Fold each of these.
Amino acid sequence: MPPLAPASAQRWPWWPLLPLYPYGRRRTLVRELIAGQLWSFEQLQGVYYVAVPIRMTVLKLREGLLLYAPVAPTAEVRRALAQLEQQHGPVLSIVLPTSSGLEHKLPVPAMARAYPGAQVWVTPRQWSFPVPLPLAWQGFPMGRTRVLFEQGLPHDDELSWCGLGPLDLGVGTFMEAACLHQSSGSLLVTDALISIEREPPAVFDLDPTPLLFHARERGDEPLADTPENRRKGWQRLALFASYLRPQSLQVPPVPELLNTALAPGLRNPRSHFGLYPFRWPDGWQHEFEQLLSQRCCELQIAPVLERLVFPRCRQALLDWLRALGQLDGIEQMVAAHYAAPVACTGAALAALADQLSNRSWAPDGGSWELLASIDQRLLKLGLVPHNP
Ligand SMILES: [Fe+2]
């Protein structure tokens, strides 16, 4: 009997459905964050050149390695991990630390297949949309997949685990599992807690195209690689990733868009044939500075989650931050996105919780307008629970 799906579809059950940048040319930046203890594997992922870095963190344990929030196990990633295994022991555990972050979930089945001896851990109440599929159908090896907190915690003599959630999103759940690597003082988090950097992350040195694409003012401008353009493109990308449609952004009418398309030198896929549906009037830099001004001791809550998830679970977020702040020995934070490592202490986490308690929560206007309208639409459709 023929297989139900081609082998490639079984390996990557959802990849073909998603037009994800960089369309099969994925590169990985490997950095040693703490000598002999902690490594960052960064890749770019996104849609239509709104590419944001995504990070896997590799931890050295007494007996081997733990992969936190896996990235796609390309040949480049496998080679770098093989070198670490030679020095520090085998990959023992693969952790999916989120229930809602699809970008972190997609690489897990392939990573699990690459390390058949590793135990796989996932946060509780995993879900899929629009069709609810069991984890086994999504490619997870059920014989060696366990649920964090419900079925134990991996290496809990070396790691302190602290969960946020599960929080009810209506269509699914939000859950994030942070862990403190005691020997290095590193707090690993996924999506909720971030530190947006002003300068472009080094992973874009491998391919700055997304930065240069967004640094332009019109579609008929060539992609010019200068430090200033890289910075400009990065700051605009950070606004996209934070607010989906920043307040400063304007979308030109179609005739204007077509007028600037197909300019000489830009008739290639890298330039999207000159199609560039964005205008950034003066003032966008101020919006970026405002985004950074939400930080407290370099830490901040991801705006998308602040507006779409946490309005209904504000206390849970504050409790989580304060619980993290109680963990002994935190020296730095490593998140799955943006800057890492970032200096972090228990006092800084407590200060962030205090700041969030005292400032107004994500509003409906300004930069937050599109996120607020999505939230209100979901509420109207009954797809998310009402505010308490
Ligand atoms: Fe994420």
Note: The chain is about 30% helix and 20% strand.
Amino acid sequence: MLCILFASYSPSYSQSNKPVLAIFNLQPVAPIGEGESVQITQFIQEALFYSNSYEIVERAQIDKIVKEQKYQQSGLCDDACAVAIGRQLAATKIIIGTVGRLGAAYTIQIRMLDVESGKMERISSINQKCALEDLPGFIPDLVNRLSQGDEKSAVRSMTTTPQIQAREVPSAGEVWRESVTEMEFVWISPGRFVMGSESGRSDEKPVHDVELDGFWMGKYEVTQGRWVKVMGSNPSYSKKEDDYPVEQVSWEDTQKFISRLNELNRGIGITLRLPTEAEWEYACRAGTTGDRYGNIDGVAWYSENSGSSTHPVGTKQRNAWGLYDMLGNVWEWCQDWYGTYGKGYSKNPTGPSLGSDRVDRGGSWFSDAQVVRASSRFRFPPSYRSYRLGFRLARTN
Ligand SMILES: [Ca+2]
């Protein structure tokens, strides 16, 4: 959004060497309302003031500029706009962020941006189960972690102007942790592989060359604990401990989960989604070309060893790229509509543009060995739910 500013304000600050910090109202995510987000922003402002590390811009000064620009402090003003307002206030740093609630827990994420460069420098977050009046007791921890910058590496070179500044390329196998659920993702380097199988079923043919850009792939299937954290209840048929994979989720359900999680992460420049079918097979194979990335009993929970049940994620051997349970445990939804393969090379394929079923991959605790293969394909309507069917997430950028 364009943010046109008028040179109508000339702030002045004392001659301390402390960074001048402007704190914008946190973006509320439902069910949090505007009033509650303003209150929580004030808690953060107080904690930053008492940290004695910053000179804090008075809220009235921010309000004045925002009012002149006819923007609300949150919602209508994106990061670039907030940086521009920070510049107008002669601030050197700004704080922006989001506040939502997952069940009884507040989830707060704050980011510090450098006004001169527009770059995000620090990020900190908390998930705290408590009443609003008790929240101030936990805010200093949030603020301290921001000052220490211990999550700085998690955001690497994400900036408010990613289209201009080149993003640092992660190294193969690097792990990124999503801050709301603490789900781990592994960086899958760009590459080329042969998709499908000549010895498989007819829909696994023809084998064809596929080239993919790099992406982040969920290290594990999404668990029941992570699902509950984001959605508030557990749909699984086999309700067990937090580290069991969630199942009984339709493709449509996964989209609601993803949309809510992306909303909670809004502003830090990431987009979570399901993997494409080609990404899934590339990540599953991890450089191997056979049916599986290891001995089936070593790597997968399937009909012969599962005891007719799902198992906690990550309890079988991982593949060469650090991913667990790509084969077995639960089937995994992919983004694509199901269709037949085309012939020849393709780059970053996303499947047919229309269809009636979505793709599922990897087989489950219920599957026979012949199905539990890297190239094996399955399909269900997007509204279908099953105790054999779950998912994992991917992240593009
Ligand atoms: Ca699986």
Note: The domain at 5-148 is CATH 3.40.50.10070 (Rossmann fold).
